[in-house]
Amino acid sequence: MLETGEVEVSAADEGETLEAGEEAKSLQDQVEEQKAKPVLFGTFGGVFVPTLLTILGVIMYLREGWVVGNAGLLGAWLIILIAFAITTSTGLSLASVTTNIRIGAGGAFSIISQSLGLEVGGSIGIPLYLSQALAVSMYIFGFREGWQWLFPGHPALYVDLAAFALLFIIAYISARLAFRIQYFILAVIAASLFSVFWAGVQGSMQEPVQLWGDFPGSPETGFSGIGFWGVFAVFFPAATGIMAGANMSGELKNPRKSIPVGTLSAIGLSLLIYLGLAYWLARSAPPEELVSNYTVMIEKAAFGSLVLSGLLGATFSSALTSIVGAPRILQALGEHGILPKSEWFSRRTERGEPRNAMLFTGVIVFGALMLRDLNSVAPLITMFFLISYAMINVVVFIEQNLRLVSFRPLFKIPLAVSFLGAAGCLFAMFIVNPGFSLLAVVVVLVVYSYLLRKHLKAPFGDVRSGLFVAVAEWAAKKANSLTSSSERTWKANMLVPVEDPGELLGIFNFLRDIAYPKGSIKLMGLTGKTDEGTLLSRLLHMSRGFQDEGIFASWTVIDTAKFEENLVAGMEALTGSFFKPRVLFLSLPESGDRDEELRKVIRKAGLHRMGVLLFSKHPKAGLGRQNSINLWVEDRGPGWEISMDLGNLDLALLTAYKLKSNWKASLSFTALVSSPVQAQAAENFLHSLSELARIPNVEVHVLHENLENSPQIPLVSLNIFSLDPEPDLDIARSLMEKTGSSCLFSLDSGEENALA
């Protein structure tokens, strides 16, 4: 027997108890996991409703009647159709691109970044975020005006702060709560529109229709007149707001489906509402009343209180949509390291709420409210929205033109749609406010230049390389159709054979200084001395090193039996390329074992119209302080006459000039004369050469003796000599010893002209 208080449990019962406990634990885990899952939204709640509520805003309630009164019914319809044509084109482009990519968080920022890179996406995303945040303050001010129409005794600051506190609390708790409240606001706006419809049924539409208006202007300007595009500028912001749903892209169940369907549906329905309201207004009040009474819609509706409630609901919902969407853009910017303290901004709660970004946004909105007047920057907010819309169209237009296999959207649109969308956005910008349009473009360019210096690393690819390749292909075709002369376009595009990567490291800076800034370096790995795997990795590393220094560099490996075969095979392969190397850079070995092979390579270079630079590095002096260069000019006696044909001197002159510029070194020309009688003529030649070659601050020297016996050789960092097509390489080595410095020997290809 067991003592009192103890219960006897059989093995079977114990097993059942354990199973029940495990089942209960499993159920609890499931509940916890469900709680921790981010809330994802569908098409209706996540895209359609916020987009529709943002479009049906304060302009519909307070300014559409003014538009009809100024422009007449046909004029108002034309303004509405032009405005919605621009945003519909953008909506179609948005629909197309979102059916092609896996859109991440951040809406327009994510779309633009995945096509044109993080720098372009960030340059649009940062101003777009600030616009969304500042727009919250603008909507709160609009809400306050409607509230004070009902309660004129309520202090403006208290109304603003109360509205902000309510908005922030709702958004901070969760986006789901914000969207639930928007359903109620949607019902209020629907009731206000029903009030308008019911007034029409009851006989409010008794006025004769004015098809085209007289454009008298507004009460604020004393009805001094206004143009068609002036009225358009007032109305156009009503058609914006189409990105409200796309901004929630990171929290949609199926953004690829929801964004196109929800956005286009909201645009289509709101267009019908605006067109219908314009007709009702034109039939319900005379033009004089429409242009002078901004609350005519409230007064002519069957139930004015419902319209006023709709006005308050529209401004509140627009503010709510912006205060929910703006932190999502900020969080996405932080996630990609675009902002200072990006890690802090990128954090989300277990439910997917960007609380840190929300707090920061709240600070910005509060600060803007304290300014008490944002009218001066309101146009800038519209400009940033329009720039982001334009870039969406540009992205699709570029993708359509590139015809890359990666661009295969499920929703295809004609090329004209994206083009007209981009052109329409730019047109609207400069119609609404040219000054702020230019300012917005400057801000975007400044942000872009800042992001370029950050060297951002994107976790996704983009189409920039495809774009540049397309431009390069077009340029190549155009260049090939022109004259083949390259004298004016010559650049130091060098082919550098590499057997030992260690030797390349020793001349890295020298190669960079010859190529910089517009030249290029093609590294050709030659197997034999170094293991192929090691050669590949070192060439890749060195190529990146040149690119970090601002030099375009690439590499390849040729695997054949001998040094000469390797090098000749590489030269022949590259001869047919468009961006072919212009100069073969060789290093002169200390011994003469390979002299015959080098001579064969130099002859082959001449056959392929490629110049040659043969570098002989002094074993002790190296390149010294890199502060002085001496160019040797061979005897041109007896006349020493200068002409456009300098013989084998063009490549030497061009190389000397580039090194002088990049080293900030002194440059001297030294001539050898066979007779003292020629000294003056030689000196005149050198001065003329400096002037015609446009190389300033050149010192000239004339030596009377033979170089081998001359005691007058100047001591410099580098001596440059002409190279004979059939060179005696032993003489080249002796010149390095005689001058006591490194030497560079130059052979023209015939493509250079230092006097061009």
Could you provide a short overview of the structure?
The protein is an alpha/beta fold.
Give a short account of the largest sheet. Answer: 10 strands, mixed
> Which shape, going by the Cα principal axes?
elongated
Class derived from helix and strand content: alpha/beta
CATH class label of the largest domain: Mainly Alpha
CATH architecture of the largest domain: Up-down Bundle
Written overview of the protein:
The protein is an alpha/beta fold and 756 residues long. It folds into 3 domains: 43-452, Amino acid/polyamine transporter I (Up-down Bundle), CATH 1.20.1740.10; 484-615, Rossmann fold (3-Layer(aba) Sandwich); 617-756, HUPs (Rossmann fold). The chain has helices at residues 11-36, 43-55, 58-62, 64-98, 108-116, 118-150, 156-173, 175-201, 228-235, 255-284, 287-292, 296-300, 304-335, 342-346, 355-371, 378-402, 415-432, 434-452, 464-481, 501-506, 508-515, 532-548, 563-575, 595-607, 650-663, 679-692, 729-739; strands spanning 493-498, 520-526, 552-558, 583-587, 611-616, 628-633, 666-672, 698-703, 718-722, 742-747. The chain has a 10-stranded mixed β-sheet, with helices on both faces. It starts with 10 loop residues before the first helix and ends in a 9-residue tail after the last strand.
Topology of this structure?
Elements lengths: L10 H26 L6 H13 L2 H5 L1 H35 L9 H9 L1 H33 L5 H18 L1 H27 L26 H8 L19 H30 L2 H6 L3 H5 L3 H32 L6 H5 L8 H17 L6 H25 L12 H18 L1 H19 L11 H18 L11 E6 L2 H6 L1 H8 L4 E7 L5 H17 L3 E7 L4 H13 L7 E5 L7 H13 L3 E6 L11 E6 L16 H14 L2 E7 L6 H14 L5 E6 L14 E5 L6 H11 L2 E6 L9
Parallel strand pairs: 1-2, 1-4, 2-3, 4-5, 6-7, 6-9, 7-8, 9-10
Antiparallel strand pairs: 5-10
Helix pairs in contact: 2-8, 2-10, 2-13, 4-9, 4-10, 4-16, 4-17, 5-6, 5-16, 6-7, 6-13, 6-15, 6-16, 6-18, 7-13, 7-15, 8-13, 13-15, 16-17, 16-18, 17-18, 23-24
